[in-house]
Amino acid sequence: MVRGLLCNAAVLAESCFFEGERLFDGPEAVLETMTAREMELLLKSLAGETALLSSGENSGFDTARFRTMRRERT
Fold first, then answer.
1. Cα separation of 50 and 48, whole Å?
2. How far is CA 66 from the centre of its chain?
3. What is the pLDDT of residue 47?
4. Largest CA distance in the chain
5. How far apart are alpha carbons 49 and 30 in whole angstroms?
6. What is the model's pTM?
7. Which helix (H) or strand (E) holds 17?
8. Which of 10, 23, 51, 61 could form a cystine bridge with 27, CB 3.0-4.6 A?
9. Cβ pair 26, 13 in contact under 8 A
10. 21 phi and psi, to 5 degrees?
11. Is 18 helix (H, G, I), strand (E, B) or coil?
12. In 9-22, which positions are buried (b, 16+ CB within 10 angstroms) versus exposed (e)?
């Protein structure tokens, strides 16, 4: 399970950009910022498997926190 979380965090660290800049400095930043479920949802969204915030998906996902986190990177 730990290996899976680390791999997912590494993928997100390499895949998440906002206005041309990385959103996360590395896998550790992803793990400090997101829950495992949030990472899963975001990975599925990036893979085109599901909408990021489709109804019924991860009711604990904090959209405002995610948007704030993106803005802080600019």
1. 6
2. 8
3. 82
4. 33
5. 21
6. 0.64
7. strand 17-18
8. 10
9. yes
10. -115, 150
11. strand
12. bbbbbeebeeeeee
